[in-house]
Specification:
By secondary structure, this protein is of the alpha+beta class. The chain folds into two domains: about 70 residues, Alpha-Beta Plaits (2-Layer Sandwich), CATH 3.30.70; about 55 residues, Alpha-Beta Plaits (2-Layer Sandwich), CATH 3.30.70.20. A hairpin with a 2-residue loop joins strand 2 and strand 3. The protein is globular and about 40 Å long.
């Protein structure tokens, strides 16, 4: 899964930008599926989906909209009713409701390409599948 060396993070938000570009075909960091947080001027954290083995979000979904495929958690936008139970259940603040898509969204590791890893200029993000 994703691993982060936060000592290298400078808060540039390139990871958010390439995420939104991959998923939405627009540069909109605020619509990314991982989130860079400023702890202070020089310290950052990243909220992201951990693709938990016994995912609380999957358990919370009454509509079977969250499923595993090759150990990656996905949200089926056609089944999601935007109830927000998955958002509440996620211990990592990694899910949000996208009003435009009318679905919950979260990191899906770019279906294996993991753009945030490819384009992080500081080498903060690593993918260990």
């Amino acid at each position: 899964m994703l691993k982060f060396d936060m000592d290298k993070c400078v808060g540039c938000r390139v990871c958010e930008t390439v995420c939104s570009s991959y998923h939405l075909k627009e540069f909109a960091p605020n619509k990314a599926r991982l989130f860079v947080n400023n702890k202070n001027e020089f310290e950052f954290s990243i909220d992201y989906c951990h693709h938990c083995e016994n995912a609380p979000c999957k358990k919370a979904c009454d509509y079977d909209a969250i499923y595993y495929k090759n150990d990656i958690l996905y949200i089926d936008e056609n089944k999601c009713v935007r109830c927000g139970k998955c958002v509440e259940a996620c211990p990592y603040d990694a899910i949000q409701i996208d009003k435009k898509l009318e679905s919950a969204i979260k990191c899906d590791l770019c279906d294996g390409e993991v753009w945030c890893v490819k384009y992080c200029p500081q080498g903060v993000i690593k993918y260990d599948n």
